[in-house]
Amino acid sequence: MTVPNAWRQLSVWLGIKHPIIQAPMAGGGITTPELVAAVSNAGGLGSIGAAYMKPEEIVQLARRVRELTDRPYAINLFAPQPPPGDVDPSRMLALLARYHQELGLPPPTPPASPFPSFEEQVDAIVESGARAFSFTLGIPPDAVLERLRARRVVLMGTATTVREAKLLEEARVDIIVAQGSEAGGHRGTFAEPFEAGMVGTLALVPQVVDAVRIPVVASGGIMDGRGVAAARVLGASGAQLGTAFLTCPESGAAPAYKAAIRAARDDMTVVTRALSGRPARGLANTLTEELKDLEVLLPYPLQHSATSPLRGAAAAQGDPRFMTLWSGQAAALSRAIPAAELVRELVEESERLR
Amino acid sequence: MTVPNAWRQLSVWLGIKHPIIQAPMAGGGITTPELVAAVSNAGGLGSIGAAYMKPEEIVQLARRVRELTDRPYAINLFAPQPPPGDVDPSRMLALLARYHQELGLPPPTPPASPFPSFEEQVDAIVESGARAFSFTLGIPPDAVLERLRARRVVLMGTATTVREAKLLEEARVDIIVAQGSEAGGHRGTFAEPFEAGMVGTLALVPQVVDAVRIPVVASGGIMDGRGVAAARVLGASGAQLGTAFLTCPESGAAPAYKAAIRAARDDMTVVTRALSGRPARGLANTLTEELKDLEVLLPYPLQHSATSPLRGAAAAQGDPRFMTLWSGQAAALSRAIPAAELVRELVEESERLR
Questions:
Q1: Is the pTM of this model over 0.90?
Q2: ipTM score here?
Q3: Chain A interface test: which of B7, B160, B202 (most A C-beta within 10 Å)
Q4: What is the CATH T-level fold of the domain A9-80+115-249+334-352, as seen in this structure?
Q5: B294 touching A (Cβ < 8 Å)
Q6: What would the CATH number be for the domain defined by B9-80+115-251+335-352?
Q7: Torsion, Cα of B240, B208, A4, A241 (10° steps)
């Protein structure tokens, strides 16, 4: 057994005080500059979830973060995927039309990819001054990693199995985020069937730590100092938390989303393809239950685009039935306190457990 | 956040030195008296997995354990389930006949319940002198719990969600085993759809600890001192390990089973109904893959009985394709060392992480 002495590694690497990373939650305007900067100012690492952002939005957001903090922060993208190919969305759109009508929306239209040019997003990140570039759903092209490396940007890749962690190490990333099955949002799984990547955080982290030589960040189900302390003794160099920061006042999550997280129980989440076409964990609602296992689900990211207007309108109307409610499995432990206070509590609580 | 100060609670309660529990693995003769006694003699709590044992076998095994140790140990049963009702097993038997032929077995015969009378099993436990009675898959009848309570037997129930933990507390059990989704063998889920009970250990344990007033034992994915230390900081009063003890020389697991565990990786397990009719986690093999999601799977426990001769013969022949290979998600961390040494290592490793 490796005795963990890795906890300080990450802080040195990233130039941060506490190895606490606010997870890059894409979509829904959650990772506001205020949230990112508050986490970084508190000594952690804030992250902009920029997957769906246009290059100019990234530039703008990063500039605003820069105004609010001079500490390191990260920007996250989804690794580009092969195009989904030609599919007929008509049956899915017919299904969604019912919900559109219910919310008073015009009928849904054929979906297109929601992603701006990846290369141009990377351009924006290169210009942004972000200390770290994190990514999920795969490994970006070598040229992209090389370009960021040349700018001394720290590269953080997401793995859900030991095999994926080794692939990331081979691609010469600097840090591995080991995403356990408890995690909210998209499963990062890219080199395996998604079911093979449903490994619990407590089982995954020590196996990844033993398999690679680079620092490992634990993610999935971490909500308080107990989870942070567990990450440390499991051999991780840091902890990444998404759901825990989602309910902070600085988070841009819709009020109904925050309320749903605050009221959640451990047995309320599902892993679903219904929202984006790719497996992701969130609170069960009408959308996840009524679209469950349907053959007419569109491939990623077309399902995302097809359901996007509905989810957006539901969020605006405060209707949790049709909203995006990504959540980890320990949402019941969430707190509605400012991000800086949360970072401080996480550090103090975990220190008391030494 | 509750600051865990619970780690010593369990030892006092059970009269053991270290809050390390060898999980009660039923079937396959794994929990030999030698294994159980070795764990208890080392200061942990050994457990006899007696679910499929006849009362006289329980008595005999318990007597042998008593000869080998005067320390506390536990006996485990499955809570009785409603009978499966009338089903036609012919299509499943036809499917299995192919494998029977391949292994040189006579054709499979219609399955019956594999369980002896629960009441008589309990009689045997009452007479056995076991310090603790642990159970899973539900809550035994109140009269049974009352009877054991009167004999000062410590009652340990298995929960996979906060809701189940609360039900166990209401039933006045003494200790809750919180079984995370990483765990090998049968999912203990009894009050929820099984998918709702697939909560990772790191997320489950602190939520259960916060929800009940009785000691909580963490289980699922714990294999070394890192996992034990994680259980402690998550607020548990102890750690239960199955897969970790399976590869000990004292374990009665078939050699081919031990070899499969030693060669396992994190992405190799599946949760399957193929072997028993109830969801359980094990290494994927021909049986789990070829019977996956078939509509002809029999209800629990008839599927268990139907596949039992095949699995038994495969184990005897050393053929992992058709064996029972229950395994947690961190089998890659297994060690083939004597049980007493494993207990000592678990304690020392976790102490170093304080």
A1: yes
A2: 0.97
A3: B202
A4: TIM Barrel (3.20.20)
A5: no
A6: 3.20.20.70
A7: 150
